[in-house]
Amino acid sequence: MLHNGSGLTTSHERPASWRGKRLRIFVSEAEAWQGRPLYRAILEAAQRHQIAGATVLRGIEGFGPDHHLASERLPDIADNLPLLIELVDSEEQIGRFLPVLQSMVRHGLITVTPVTIVALSTWQEWPR
Question: What is the C-alpha separation between 120 and 58, in angstroms, rounded?
Fold first, then answer.
């Protein structure tokens, strides 16, 4: 297999892997966007922008910049647990979606990490 400048592997068969990006968005359950939960709004926006994959994970404990601990162990403060939203797609798709995401996340942290995507799907359009 040969690697070209775009990060794609080249051969006569389907590429085995290519470069992509993973967005991680750290927010709390209480964050909202236009009257609904922020995590739901982010997922819906990612769907509209045809992001390849998205997952929301609910943390059992954590804190943000204010260092206020939210914990599942303490029922009186368990109503604002941390959420981690992960989005994965090509570098180009993530680059186009990032400004949308930045306009939505007012209190949270967004990270972007390079990843190697190994296609396990039947999507014919990958990579985009």
Answer: 25
Is-contact 110 101, C-beta < 8 A? yes
- For residue 118, count CB atoms less than 10 angstroms from its CB and return exposed for 0-12, middle for 13-18, buried for 19 or more: exposed
Summarised one tens digit per residue, pLDDT across range 70-119 is 777 766 656 678 999 999 999 999 999 999 999 999 999 999 999 998 86
d(CA 49, CA 53): 11
The C-alpha atoms of residue 15 and residue 95 are separated, in whole angstroms, by 22
Under a CB-based contact definition with an 8 Å cutoff, are residues 116 and 20 in contact? yes
- Report the relative pairing of strands 109-117 and 32-33 from DSSP bridges: unpaired
Token code pair at residue 52:
């390849």
